[in-house]
Amino acid sequence: GGSSGSSESSESSSSAGREGEGRDVRRLAAAALHNLALHLRPGSLLAGDMATRALKGALRGLADEDDDLVLQRRAIAAGIILRTFGHFAGRDAVKESGLDRELAAAVAKVSTSESGASEETKQALREVNRLL
Which of 3, 9, 22, 80 is most enclosed, with most CB atoms within 10 A? Predict the structure, then answer.
C-alpha cells in the first residue's frame, strides 16, 4: 500500500524533472541557434550552407513546441537568417522539405486565444512567415 504510493510519487517527480531538463535543453539549443544566427555572415559557400541548415533547424518541429521562450528564440533566429542571407538562406530547401507548412501551422497555433504565446512570439513567427 504505502510504499507503492511513494514509488508512484517519486516516479511522477522524476518524470517532471526529465520534462524540466528537456525544456532546459531545448532552451539552451534555441539560445545557441540564436547566437549562431547573429554571427553568421554572408560571403562564402560554407556560410550559406550553414545558414540553410540553421534555418531548417529553427523551423523543424515549430508547431509542436509548447515553450514560448524556445519558440520565440527559434523564430527570431530564423528571421535573422532570412534577413541576413536573403534568397541565399535556402528558401527552396525549406519549401521542398515542407518546413514552410510547419511554420504556417505554428503561426496558426499561436494565433488561437488559448495558445498562451506572448505577443513577441506571435510577431516573430508572423515576420518569419512573411520573409519566407
Answer: 80
d(CA 43, CA 64): 34
What's the CA gap between 105 and 5, in Å, rounded? 41
Checking phi first, is residue 118 left (phi over 0); if not, alpha (psi -120 to 50) or beta?
beta
CB 75 within 8 A of CB 58: yes
User: All 3 cell numbers of residue 91?
Assistant: 528558401
pTM tops 0.70, yes or no = yes
58: left (phi over 0), alpha (psi -120 to 50) or beta: alpha
Are the C-beta atoms of 116 and 122 separated by less than 8 Å? no
